[in-house]
Design brief:
The protein is mainly beta. The chain is built from eight helices and 43 strands. The strands form ten sheets. Strands 35-34-33-32-31-40 form a six-stranded mixed beta sheet, with helices on one face. β19 (270-274) and β20 (279-284) form a beta hairpin. The longest helix is centred in the first third of the chain and has 15 residues, at 7-21. It is elongated.
Amino acid sequence: MFNKFTMQGIFALALGSSLAACGAEETGVGDTENVGENAQKLQSFAAPFRDGSTMRGSSADWDPQHGKASCAPGEVVSGISVSPTDHQGRSALCKEGDAAKFTGNVVETMVLADADERRASRLGDWAPGFYKLECGYGEYVSGVSENAAQYQGNNKFHGLQCAQGVGFTEDTACTVRTFDTRDDRGDWTRLEWDYGGYKGECAINEHVAGVSISPSSGGPHSILCCQSSGPAPTMSPGATFWGTGPLMTFTAQTATECYTPCLEDASCTGGTFNPDKQACWLRTGSATVGDGLVSDNAFTVSSSLRDAYYLSLMHAGRTFWGAGGTASPGLRTFSTPSAAVCYQACLVDPSCAGGTFNPDKQACWLRAGQADIGDGLVSDFAFVMPSAQRDEALRFLGEKFAPRLRFDGAANGYPMSAQAFYDKAITQNAGISVNDDAASLSTGAIPTYYQTITCGAQVRLMYWFFYGYQEDCDGSSGSHPGDWERVMVTLSEDRSRIAAVTYWMHGKSYTRLPARGSVAIEDVTHPVIYIGKDSHAAFYNQGGSSNTCLPWEEFRNNSTGVHLDTWNKLVSLDGNEEPWMLHDRQGGFSWGNGGVGTHPTQAGPSCNMAAATWDDAIPTWWHADCEYGDTEALGTCWTSGWDSYTKAWTIGITDRGLIVGN
């Protein structure tokens, strides 16, 4: 849904609202105000309904002898205002959207009868103690009404009109906005559309799906704002999308949860959603759809559909100005015909606060600074980059590139929950916990902890695995409780592939580059980590010659195929999702009696990390790669100019030396 303004429209809207607030005569009941011309000018219109009617669509009197506001086809109610004195309704905000989505076809008129009237139950009792009128799934509020005083009414809220939407997938993606005593607005870019009134207003990508009413005053109390997502792919029941390669598999309860990550990932061409299994499979490659289970639903995603999706996240006819001028380093301009490319370029740049895309000019402007959206050309599309969307994008990358751990056929111990160990060994001092059950790895219940850092456009993902106990390696030494192990995945600047993998072994590290053919990758995006039989050290290959913890000699042969797909349960270390994390940030304790003092919350990735760290006893540098394009000879790295450097080179935050020649 788009939010468009012209300067003339803003002044006209402000003037109309001011007159209403000053007691100007309102349109009489039964009168129809033809505001179609103004709608084209304003694109968003405050429609008064107190003691009068504003009919922007059909002139049909859907609630006789009541004041009402009706939005036109292609528009949706996105806000309601109330008087600050008696808290009764005053105006509705009609917002222009996609005409194909907001059909204007009325399916139900619902009136208040001292009880809830609900055609759906999206969030359960989303306004306890208040009467609720709620449209059905796939429907939106297109009009509201009140008891007009000139018909011996009392201005109490009376009813709403539900119209049929197309392509709606919101179901439970809703927010309650309470506005009877103050403003509660999800979008402040419209300035004041009802001066002096308290306003409830949905966000740019939401619509009103329900209204709650006070049993005592009869005034509107809150609105239920639900997402009306952008264009959705066509689902093919009973079919499966095969593609040419897997991308990722995850749990999804709705089709939206399944196809949205595909729309947001340029490498994804389609997928399959199965509601019975609550599973989603996304794939790459050619769009081949074949027979599937009865409960399968296949879909494909084209570049045009992906562009339409990103356009739906933008404000049409608007420009994002940011805080910098044309000389500001925060401004970046480039040519592209794709809304997706423009939006994602901002997404991967942590300094970018928003941008403007113009498909007619095939241009993208990205800016830093405050989120200021102002008037733009008719062909401009402005967007602000929400921090929550960046966080979600990082989590998606964390899942997409998470490693697959492969264990030795006679492994001693597997990863487990750090919280379970903490509760027993640290909090209760009741001994240690271990996980010796290989079958637990396939349940999706074993957490992998991870951290993210953005270095320019590059993302680094560090994954931590917790083991309750490390067995001795030679029958006499090396054992201890509380064993933390880790690997780090560094992505290319466009975030489409793995640029480097850094492995840890006994506290030392080494880095290998997929561009040099040095990293095993399965299912397209998941690096394979072979786990040492006893020490749980991270290896890039199978092998080993003995029961020992000596580097490179330890067994790590995945003869049984036992593995952990870490992406099935990722837990962020960037917050305090599990209680142990707060204590870990403070440090000052060991993981178990005689256990390690490693604290992962204090040892996250940085933008200045060596490709290898080692000592004489743990010479991990032997297995570290030189920068891509350089030559290794006599255990030293050499540039094309025959300058030498050690394998402790700093991992660059650009693609140079990682996936392109240095």
